Amino acid sequence: MDSLPPPPLDVARVRADFPILAQKIRGKPLVFLDSAASAQKPRAVIEAMRAAMETQYANVHRGLHWMSERTTDAYEAARDAVAALMNARERNEVVFVRNSTEAINLVAYSYGALLRPGQAVLISGMEHHSNLVPWQLLRDRHGIELRVAPVTDAGELNWPAFENALADGKVGLVAITHMSNVLGTYTPVERIVRAAHAVGAKVLLDGSQAIVHRKVDVQALDCDFYAWTGHKLYGPTGIGVLWARRELLEAMPPFLGGGEMISSVTYARSTWAAVPHKFEAGTPAIIEGIGLKAAIEYVQALGYEAIAAHERALTEHALARLSDIEGLRILGAAQDRGGVVSFALAGAHAHDVATLLDRQGIAVRAGHHCAEPLMHRFGLESTARASFGIYTTREEIDVLADTLVRVREFFA
Predict the structure, then answer these.
(1) Which of 16, 308, 319, 370 is catalytic?
(2) Which residues contact 341 (CB under 8 A, 6 or more apart)?
(3) pTM score of the predicted model
(4) CATH assignment, 11-41+303-411
(5) 46-300: CATH class
């Protein structure tokens, strides 16, 4: 018997959980279409962080008093929540960092030190700067080669070119986005992992966007590293995740030195703590970790199937409405795409478009979205970008489309 579809997301109820959405901007109802940059926070996250600060705050891992023990338990429960969310083999494969950028830099610095000069790192032409610049630094520091698999006109990975880049067996690491923050494209990660592993390369997936919209199972994906950030998953800023296979973490040298990441210290030498603490130097983002756990629980209560169905319907509606606007160009036409729509309006700079939308209470992103080479690939310097979340409604997309028609007339 076919399984029943998930019950639809009760968007009105979800919106009631986000106090910030009730306000007006410049006298207009807030239409927040910038969740890909940073999502809003539900009351459950706000209250979890407030309660921790008001009732139990202390530093973690080192204290023997009640406050420290209680806060340590709450903070480490966040690691358990992340491990369960990603179906990690064990909780100690979860390293807490500040954000995806730090996670990727950690891999570039630490795992990158294990690559041999002459080996290559392969990325795609749709990467965020955080999955490009660290590899340029590694190239300049360590002598590795940086290869880029191009993107098709539809905004998808050019698979023959990707395979060709792997063919000589020199690629030691493939670092690629799971979902593009500009095009909304989901890359074929299972296929990528199989191809990379076939030539002995490891795979890092930048899941900053994907984990917000789809269930991620790192064991099923069979990748080696997975990076994401809490503030896009309706959690706080300042907390992110690097998941990595334990055997890789064991082999990698530390990224930062200091307290917490050591086993013992003398003036002559130091030894390192067990993973994941080897990579978590200093006082961590304690309150943010507690907030991240609350965000994970909130999303899981809604259910990824319901979230994905809701956002798929929103994306289809947005593409249909925006495609009807004369002079508006949508970037990318991937078959598998998420709730991100980047667009350019003929004769108008993206910053001007975003400013005029803001006058009507509509928040979108404008610029190169930290993907400047990708902009150049499509012959543009910048675009406006509307991105959707669990609280986005069809009516908000209609407001965006109707307002863009008026904005277009302003530049006619």
Answers:
(1) 370
(2) 184, 315, 318, 319, 322, 330, 385, 386, 387
(3) 0.96
(4) 3.90.1150.10
(5) alpha beta
